[in-house]
Amino acid sequence: MSTKSSMPVKFGRVFSAVAFLLCGACATAAVEVRVADFGVSPDARADATPGVRAALSAALDAKGGATLVFEPGEYHFYPENARALVRYVSNHDNSRAPRRFVFDVSGATDLVVDGRGARFVMHGDVTPFLIERSERVSVKNLTIDWNVPLLYEGEVLAADASGFTVRVRADEPFEVDRGAFVISADGVRWPMDTFCEFAGDGSGQAAGSADAYGFRYHAEKTGAADGRTVRFSVTDNYALPRVPREGNIIFLRCNLRAAPAFFMERSIKVSLDGVAIHHAPGMGVIAQRCEDVTLRGMRVIPNDSLGRQVSTNFDATHFVGCRGRVLIEDGEFRNMLDDAMNVHGVYLQVLRRLDDYRLVVRMPHFQAQGFIAVEAGDRLRLARFGTLLPEGEAVVTKVARRGPDEMTITFDAPIAAEVNPLDALENISWTADVVFRRNTVSGNRARSILVSTSGRVIIEDNHFNATGSAIRISGDARSWFESGPVADVLIQGNTFTNPLRCGYGRAAIDLDPEVDVPSGGTPGYYHRNIRIIKNKFRLCDRAVLLARSVDGLEFSENTIELANDFAPLNRQKTEFELVRCRNVQLERNTFSGWPAKDGIVVSGDADSLSTMRFTPGQGIKTREHGAKGQR
Amino acid sequence: MSTKSSMPVKFGRVFSAVAFLLCGACATAAVEVRVADFGVSPDARADATPGVRAALSAALDAKGGATLVFEPGEYHFYPENARALVRYVSNHDNSRAPRRFVFDVSGATDLVVDGRGARFVMHGDVTPFLIERSERVSVKNLTIDWNVPLLYEGEVLAADASGFTVRVRADEPFEVDRGAFVISADGVRWPMDTFCEFAGDGSGQAAGSADAYGFRYHAEKTGAADGRTVRFSVTDNYALPRVPREGNIIFLRCNLRAAPAFFMERSIKVSLDGVAIHHAPGMGVIAQRCEDVTLRGMRVIPNDSLGRQVSTNFDATHFVGCRGRVLIEDGEFRNMLDDAMNVHGVYLQVLRRLDDYRLVVRMPHFQAQGFIAVEAGDRLRLARFGTLLPEGEAVVTKVARRGPDEMTITFDAPIAAEVNPLDALENISWTADVVFRRNTVSGNRARSILVSTSGRVIIEDNHFNATGSAIRISGDARSWFESGPVADVLIQGNTFTNPLRCGYGRAAIDLDPEVDVPSGGTPGYYHRNIRIIKNKFRLCDRAVLLARSVDGLEFSENTIELANDFAPLNRQKTEFELVRCRNVQLERNTFSGWPAKDGIVVSGDADSLSTMRFTPGQGIKTREHGAKGQR
Q1: pLDDT range class, residue A448, cuts 50, 70, 90
Q2: Can you give the residue range of the structural domain that contains A351?
Q3: Residue B6 domain-assigned?
Q4: Is B226's Cβ below 8 Å from some Cβ in A?
Q5: Model-level ipTM above the cut of 0.95
Q6: Are A59 and A127 found together in one domain?
Q7: How far apart are CA A486 and CA A475, in angstroms?
Q8: Residue A606: strand, helix, or coil
Q9: What phi and psi, each to the nearest 5 degrees, are found at residue B300?
């Protein structure tokens, strides 16, 4: 039941109070707050921020919950009136400079934001949604786009190893400033420093184009009459490793992880339903230390109606140190410049042991700094540097911060004497179950999805039209410091189309924790219990699976076709590569398209092969190698 | 000899070429480039940036050097047309977001920027000067100010322990946004998070006010007719440790180290002559990895004509990893919110030893990240964690970066086996001599100056009207990681007025490296050879000197008056406090104002006292303490 005002009321707080009184008797019914009653009309270019923030404020004041309602149409949001708050967003670039948030949802309970099909257009460096310290928040039926996406597209007119000439879209204002290409839109002025080639037909990253070009360039306008044609020349005696194809699209990207579309922190039961994100200067959705996040029918896709080819500048969705369940269903994730999903924790690095109960630790990756990785009450597991094998657990009683990246942690029990600098701590109180189901991922740079969580993981009935590895399950305490091991993963009923046609990975599915494997005979495996069942693969590269330090790995009842749609990368020489695994099963799979003489090769060390089971008659041959890949 | 154009030429590059031809014969004469010839007129509010940048570009193109000349008057600079470049500025807040530079001096040789008394007015978040990879650059005769300083002033109308009410200056636009006080000027929107109390009479930080208030507040407009009166109430059951005095000034500060006025990197022989800086959102001058920097007649002072009370938001001048000589003469440094000068290196922290030749190290302090602390060819000295005593040296052959804060360093010689995690590396190829002479420092928060460099240091004939310690010579590898030990310091002929009337320090002169002192009998001292001679002190707190781990410390022929102008802080119980020093001399000093019964007390451990010499008859008494202060 909702309450509607029969006549428009200009001052929203008055309206809100009235609605509240009317609704005093109906405890379970939410107040409905309409932005229209706060002077906000669709299809005006004026800044909707003040009115929407006033309406949101009224909705937040309503005890018992409220629904904030939009009329269909287009709403514009500018930074000037957005809320300035210092927030550290994990896996983004941070400083103590405030970010600007349009929807500032803090401390909310039972809030619904219903766009009713509205389209929100952002101008410049703003973050549309902050959802923090809130419970039961739902955002639905709306589209987020940017007036000028902060990631430009140039059509390749000419190219050779010394550079390329592109025509920049007419709706993307830029300058060439002393050899630098500078996007200059809506108060943002960013020099481009990274390039990536996408196919001209909208299918995503150009096959064979490998990763972004990150060379030092000199840009110059060519003098063409449209003023939009720019030649990028290599400098420093560099040569392009690949010459972009005429008619393809070069993305002109500033490698700055700026504003995401949604930033969620310390919130419980947040859902996005029917939300589309056409662009974000950072990621689409980043959630940290949240519990139960659901994304249903989410579309992170380019704005096709404007002929755009790319969506978010970085990952579509990213979850750090979350718990409960991350559920992503019936979504479409297309042409981002990074992964569709990544769920992981953060390894803390031990700097030193102060006494029996205290450790000084740091957050090693700079983009994780400021993230609240641990609080009193959390249970941490110590993992040995190198192997990352577990060495015991304890509960935190106190955290004393020493700046954004360093802290002293006090435990409830004496620390085993053998804690060494560089050992890692995983927060096992904050690990999520994951369901990623009936989604389509296509065309994006990098992987389709990454998962490293010890919760239950179900990846099923998706279509992964991947340019790199489709699924990566890693974990490391050397570079990104993304924890942790998986314990229960089911990958079932998915379709994999031409993974590895661009780069990023060694096999269609990479299970490649960056760990030292214990020397022969020593027990201990990083990941365990991964089942890859009843999937269909259409491959251009014959590398199906890489597995390192996995105990319990089933690859069964899959159908694999080698179709040669694209040239293979040949980064992995054999179909299956096993490094220090145990209890691998390869059964009842169907392979087609392989030259008869080749067969399906499983290459592995003695430990992996001696405990492997496989159905004879699949054409599988095994080949034993030494301690290959051992760090 | 200079070349002048007899008629204005609109397109500067043409003019520059002409000037160049005219001047072809006179190898030692510099071309003169007038901004007026590039359409830039004084006293217009229009953005001078494009014209000035074009003129600067012409000056930079002139082989053999050039002088960029302004007419007297006021010039305005806005961010829109400033050059966007990603630069990591040490001791400031950084991210990969570009900064915006107005004067973009890169790769220059023999450039003079002569303001001829011009006043440069900045709007918003811009950095007026970048000077990088340049040699022989001089900037002179100009004033830098901000249209709206990004640090506000509120006059205290009422105050008690639960909060205070201030009236904000009429020229400082702000908003109160859900309890946060937000400065909102020239495209900047920063929430204030730090407070500091200054005296109402312009004399600087209010005596007894200790450090900034950093409490969680709730701001609300009082409803006063001017709309500029705001009540700040404490929250979280906090009580103000000091109630601000009515009529004093509360500075409303965002603790963000944003744009400095001058950023210099990798440049040689840079001088600023007759430059005034009224404000900067960050520091006044920050130089890193520069050689020979001279500041003559510099004034970092508030804009008195506008009735302003504070100058820069952080240090007036700061030098990191410089060499050659830092010379600061005849300057005035008044009412900054941080130190007048700090000269130091950066300790790198060892993370691990890879092999006989390689170490993985990090830049531990987040505000130093991105700073180029070491390059191939530099000589590093290993210092043991804790004591920071030297353990050997080696030359770097290679630096492989692993992100902004971590790198692998390869040395030319095998590393001693006993390198441990957390040991520190000092770059002894980049240590500067320092001359700080005939300057006046007054009223600023924190210390007057800090020095930690093993070059020759001369601090003479200055007036330190200090609110905390006047001179601090420290060094640590625990918090700020500022290296390193001093080896030759002369502090002579200075006048010290009422240091320690606010806080920040324990004695008028603090020689307080944050090091563990070796246990009794083990040799090793951090600093050495510090002479404090022929100075005059007028004190409100009787703590004259703190010295820790100094070998060779002379305090002679000084005149010290205890005048009781302000209440003492009594942080140090005795006049002289010595911790593990050797060869201390206290001779021919004159003390006055002390109660006859008290005498002058030198408190120290046995090692310090047993090697001390002092002239009898100064009223000095010694008092031995144990291993006090030993970490």
Answers
A1: very high
A2: 345-427
A3: no
A4: no
A5: no
A6: yes
A7: 9
A8: helix
A9: -105, 95
